[in-house]
Design brief:
The chain is α/β, with parallel strands linked by helices. The protein is built from 8 helices and 6 strands, in the order H-H-E-E-H-H-E-H-E-H-E-E-H-H. A 6-stranded mixed beta sheet has the order 1-3-2-4-6-5, sandwiched between helices. Strand 5 and strand 6 form a beta hairpin. It is globular and about 50 Å long.
Length: 233
């Protein structure tokens, strides 16, 4: 099995999905007006965080002018503002925001990944693109051997996490697990699975997801991990 560093290098060099390659490169060339002085990353965005992490956070895909610009997942966009604020609040990050890869952010006991590693048009990957990227998620999960809590940001991440686990040979619970904000399941193979609405502007601007609702998910993750520590003899 490869190391996380080698896996992330392979992710960054992937060109398997023609539509996504064309789109992310076009965005990196045309840019957005306020970012014209940036040299966009314009490549697939690897995972980021603590290799010994017990908390794994799974998102959908990089934002066109967020991760696709900065080269780091959830860095430089409004969803990232919400995520890193929550991670900081509960002791998983050393600062409450992240705007660029060299801003000093570090994660403790937390690793962040995505179901698709390239920014997709309209934030909507196609089924074949999910399929192509699934191997990266599967290997990432295998390498993160200390995972105790998984937070999935949105129904797509929730469903794809379970699909990958099934492909790893885990037996799925019955009845089928259903996504919802704040739902949690103790999976037969160990981790606690927490569902959260994605902190997209579509959800946060409309009030479907509030900061309090979002923070409650990470508060539960923190309680779970702290309880696990206290039970170690």
């Amino acid at each position: 099995m490869r190391s996380l560093a080698i896996l992330n290098a392979a992710i960054s060099d992937c060109t398997d999905c023609t539509r996504l390659v064309t789109y992310r490169r076009a965005v990196a060339t045309t840019k957005r007006r306020q970012f014209m002085d940036w040299t966009y990353w314009g490549r697939p965005v690897p995972g980021f965080g603590d290799p010994r992490a017990r908390l794994y956070v799974l998102g959908l895909a990089p934002a066109a002018h967020g991760g696709n610009r900065t080269g780091r997942v959830f860095t430089g966009d409004r969803s990232g503002d919400w995520l890193y604020e929550a991670l900081y609040q509960y002791g998983f990050a050393n600062q409450a925001s992240s705007t660029r890869c060299d801003d000093g952010l570090s994660l403790t006991d937390c690793y962040i990944g995505a179901t698709v590693r390239c920014a997709p048009p309209d934030n909507k990957p196609r089924p074949d693109e999910f399929q192509q990227c699934q191997r990266f998620l599967r290997e990432e999960l295998e390498l993160l051997q200390n995972t105790r809590v998984v937070v999935t940001l949105g129904k797509i991440a929730f469903d794809h996490y379970l699909k990958v686990c099934q492909r790893q040979g885990h037996s799925m619970p019955s009845p089928v697990l259903k996504f919802g904000h704040g739902v949690f399941y103790r999976l037969p193979w160990g981790p606690l699975l927490l569902g959260s609405y994605h902190p997209s502007q579509q959800n946060t601007f409309t009030g479907k997801l509030t900061r309090s609702m979002f923070h409650q998910v990470f508060a539960q993750a923190r309680r779970e991990l702290d309880t696990a520590c206290s039970e170690i003899p």
